[in-house]
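My main concern about presentation is that the manuscript never shows what a single data entry looks like. For the editor and my fellow referees, an illustration may be useful. For illustration, here is how one protein appears when written out as sequence plus structure tokens:

***
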Amino acid sequence: MNNSDIQTFLTLVNTKNITRTAQTLFISQPTVSRRLKQLETELGYTLMIRDKGGKQITLTPAGEAFVPLAEQLTNLWNRMRQIGDGGWKSSLAVGCTDTFNAAILLPFYVSLWTERRNNLSLKIATHYSHHLYEMLEIQEINLGFAFHYLDFKNITAEPLLNEAMFLVQPDAPDTLRREIIHTDELDPDNEIFVSWETQYEIWHNQWILRDHQPGLTVDTYLLLRELLQVNHSWAIAPFSVVRQLQKDTRIYVSRIKNDVLPPRRMTYLLRNKNESATISRVTNLFIRHLREFLQIQYDDVPESVHIYEP
């Protein structure tokens, strides 16, 4: 089994087409077929089935099960090559949600990148919370940050921080400019809704939705930022997102006046219980630097952001 065969298989998984795979890898179609056959012969089972025309492929159950293993083999192969090239770096794959990446981890990544701390090679992935648990379970990532607590046998979910929620509007002449606002004072049809986490959704259903639907639902920081430029729009967001919005655009921020305030957004630090000693060392180092960074970033607002001790 060699890396070329594995790479050809993974490219076929993505393209589902022999011709496109050959074009992507700059090889001939017979070479694609030969590499796949070599891999199947060595493994002893069929990975893919061709259609009648011979160009389109479909994964067998065994092929689907082999995909994550092939990805892990590719990562190991690349790391072994780095050692041989004398360019070894500690490698870490980190996964988290879009808004946590944009509002909290992005400036942290910048500091790591510019300082080149500890010769660390980072792979950053953005996914929904439940996908992060699944990716960590098969060790496709080494570390995750999620807003939902899920019970997975091989994963620990440790509270990292929680944040107060604020109401944000465009900084425009006709904005309702009050330090404290009740959500009943705003038109629900103009709301930009983000599903921050489960408890927030419950609160939102009780205090805002009632018989309405949000005017717009988004799931990325970029969409939230751009849509908050529309007059009369409004949203509720955790402190870290609000602070990043203040850096990126002009917004008006208010506290929430409702009798029951929205629950603070909790972020969980996810790790695989079966991580290797090498991954554990690199992960511990990454987390230590991150905690130091968070303490500096939010030291002036302890009422808005609470950072949990390890």
Notes: Residues 61-84 form the longest helix (24 residues). The radius of gyration is 24 Å.
